[in-house]
């Protein structure tokens, strides 16, 4: 009976997936291409299932290969956390990290700033985009690390996630009797926050209309402060002058969402790994603070 899956086989599997073919995986791991093929075959034999279909030069995962991805990445993350903990090496290098627009000017940017201050030889470039754009940039190797909303679909490069419940945000003086049409302020579609607002209103049998659309959280906040409507935000993005709309006022509860940490193990340096540890701690803490 199988009781242990060697981490070197999981690392080979994830590296092949991250880099897209056996040749690049062999170069990254310092092995030959036949050795990589043998390790994948050994992993498939251990798990008694096919994980990868090779079509020409393209690597395509089977359904079982897709299912293995999140488990393999979490095991490797824990393994690398242990190694980093006892290495105690000075960190250096360049890191390109992507943050969703709704977190880029709040606690995550503060967390990155504190990390940079603690590691003067580390240089960090922050890109602020919508979560879907960040995931595409990571896939194209334009980012080293991305934090963003994880959908319910299987997400490539998702390593870990934390649950956060968004809240209705309105201006301090905003009034709504719960029966009138609610003006909402939202990000452009597709947007997980907008989907939750519309879903909650629909389930509660309430009417709404879109008053303003902004791709930038600062635009959403400014519209809310002007009192023109309500929006879904995380508690971390509430600012002075805004408050949480309550169920007693008629605001229906919003479904939680997952904030995920995305990266490619095969391309992660020691400094980048250390930053992923730090960011995941901050996201997890935020999720614990706002979880009902």
Beta-strand residue fraction: 15-25%
- Order of strands in the sheet with most strands: 4-3-5-12-6
Number of domains: 3
Number of strands: 12
- Broad structural category: alpha/beta
Annotation field: number of helices:
9
According to CATH, what is the class of the largest domain?
Alpha Beta
Order of helices and strands: HHHEEHEHEHEEEEHEHEEEH
CATH topology of the largest domain: D-Maltodextrin-Binding Protein, domain 2
Give the radius of gyration.
Answer: 22 Å
Q: Topology of this structure?
A:
Layout: H1 7-19, H2 22-29, H3 33-47, E1 52-55, E2 58-61, H4 63-87, E3 93-100, H5 107-118, E4 122-129, H6 131-139, E5 145-150, E6 158-164, E7 167-171, E8 182-186, H7 192-203, E9 208-213, H8 217-225, E10 231-233, E11 242-244, E12 257-263, H9 270-290
Parallel strand pairs: 3-4, 3-5, 8-9
Antiparallel strand pairs: 1-2, 5-12, 6-12, 7-10, 7-11
Helix pairs in contact: 1-2, 1-3, 1-4, 2-3, 5-9
Using brief descriptors, characterize the structure shown.
single chain, 292 residues, alpha/beta, Arc Repressor Mutant, subunit A, D-Maltodextrin-Binding Protein, domain 2, 5-stranded mixed beta sheet, 3-stranded antiparallel beta sheet, 9 helices, 12 strands, elongated, disordered C terminus
């Amino acid at each position: 009976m199988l009781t242990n899956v060697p981490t070197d086989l999981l690392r080979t599997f994830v590296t092949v997936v991250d880099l897209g073919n056996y040749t690049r995986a062999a170069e990254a791991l310092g092995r030959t291409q036949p050795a990589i093929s043998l390790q994948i075959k050994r992993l498939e034999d251990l798990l008694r299932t096919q994980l990868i279909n090779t079509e020409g030069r393209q690597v395509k995962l089977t359904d079982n290969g897709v299912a293995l991805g999140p488990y393999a990445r979490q095991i490797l993350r824990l393994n690398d956390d242990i190694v980093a903990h006892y290495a105690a090496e000075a960190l250096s290098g360049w890191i390109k990290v992507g943050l969703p627009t709704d977190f880029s000017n709040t606690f995550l940017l503060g967390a990155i700033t504190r990390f940079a201050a603690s590691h003067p030889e580390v240089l960090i470039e922050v890109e602020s985009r919508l979560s879907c754009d960040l995931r595409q940039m990571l896939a194209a190797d334009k980012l080293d690390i991305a934090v963003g909303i994880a959908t319910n679909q299987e997400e490539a490069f998702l390593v870990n996630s934390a649950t956060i419940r968004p809240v209705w945000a309105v201006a301090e003086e905003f009034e709504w009797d719960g029966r009138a049409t609610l003006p909402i302020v939202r990000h452009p579609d597709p947007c997980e926050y907008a989907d939750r607002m519309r879903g909650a209103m629909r389930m509660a049998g309430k009417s709404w209309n879109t008053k303003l659309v902004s791709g930038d959280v600062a635009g959403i906040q400014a519209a809310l402060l002007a009192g023109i409507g309500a929006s879904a935000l995380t508690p971390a993005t509430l600012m002075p002058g805004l408050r949480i709309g309550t169920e007693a006022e008629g605001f229906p509860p919003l479904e939680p969402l997952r904030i995920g940490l995305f990266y490619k193990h095969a391309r992660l340096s020691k400094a980048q790994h250390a930053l992923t540890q730090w960011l995941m701690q901050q996201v997890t803490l935020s999720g614990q603070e706002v979880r009902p």
